[in-house]
Amino acid sequence: MIDAPSYARAMWTLYEPIHAMTYFAPEGRAAFEDAGLRGFWRGYFAGRAAPLGSIGSAPVIALFNGFAPSMVQRALPAVWSMIEPAAALDARAVGAAAALRRLAADPATDAVVDRAAATLEDAVARLELPGRPLGAANADLPRRDDPYERLWQATATLREQRGDGHVAALVAAGLAGLPMIVLRGALDIGRDQLQPARGWTDDEWNAATEDLVAGGLLDRAGRVTEAGRQRITEVEQATDAAAAHAWAPFSPDEITLVALDLWPLAQASMAALPERTPIGLSAQWNPSTGPP
């Protein structure tokens, strides 16, 4: 038996920045603009929500978790008058693949990408999907032909399935929605980065801060308390445990091999991201150094 939760977290640190290329790389943004969506957030909400069809704002507010309702409502459902979900699916895959090809910068990498995509698709086939609507919707999409698009789609499915489990853990911990955003703002990402990226007003943010102070998770100076750090740790541990099932059947050597295939592209993707993002990425696992 392997320590599947640890491997689930380690693999997330590799595939998350690869997945993020569809939103942050210039090729990703250009693909959404070419499809008729100008403005970062139209592409973001259309691209992430497209596997669910022409969905309205209320389910997306619940599923994406952490965005102010008013921010989501500005994009949905109006964005579906500008683009069909199928076109949004194409734009996100094509844009991400173009960015990943540029970052790979070596035609010989194509064979490695194809091999890594096949292994990640195997992991996707093992995902537990009950209670994971975004993960399930992505897992149900037709397999794409291009190896870079296949790799990107596998990372999208893995991260959305993980995200569904993360939201469930936040609900159980009483931190779903704005409270966890405020905590992460205080812990490491910064309010100046998170608040505008998630659309909350000062009044909403300050009220949530007061609630967290009253609950002992923040101190009066706005710092995360030991109890707050413990609550965050518990949420992350529950998230890792919920994502572990896909990796449990693999041996450590099998996971390490696919991780080594992903490592150069994961490094390049991380380096290509803006210096600060609201995603909250962890330090990447270097599989050449041993188990996570």
Task: Describe the protein.
By secondary structure, the chain is mostly helical. The chain has one domain. The chain is 68% helix and 0% strand. The chain has 14 helices and no strands. Helix 1 packs across helix 9, helix 4 crosses helix 5 (69-75) and helix 7 packs across helix 9. It is globular, with a radius of gyration of 19 Å. The two termini are 15 Å apart. 47% of the residues are buried.
Which structural traits does this protein have?
single chain, 292 residues, mainly alpha
**Spatial extent as radius of gyration:** 19 Å
In total, how many beta strands?
0
The unreliable regions are: none
From N to C, what is the helix and strand string?
Answer: HHHHHHHHHHHHHH
Principal-axis shape equals globular
Distance between the termini: 15 Å
Strand portion, in percent? under 5%
Helical percent range? 55-70%
Averaged pLDDT, please?
A: 96
Overall number of structural domains: 1
Alpha-beta content class: mainly alpha
Tell me the number of helical segments per DSSP (H or I, 4 or more residues long). Answer: 14
Largest sheet: none
Summarize the structure.
The chain is mainly α.
Chain-wise SSE layout:
Elements: H1 4-24, H2 26-34, H3 40-49, H4 57-64, H5 69-75, H6 85-104, H7 109-125, H8 133-139, H9 147-173, H10 178-189, H11 191-198, H12 202-214, H13 226-243, H14 252-272
Helix pairs in contact: 1-2, 1-6, 1-9, 1-13, 1-14, 2-6, 3-6, 4-5, 6-9, 7-9, 7-14, 8-9, 9-13, 10-11, 10-12
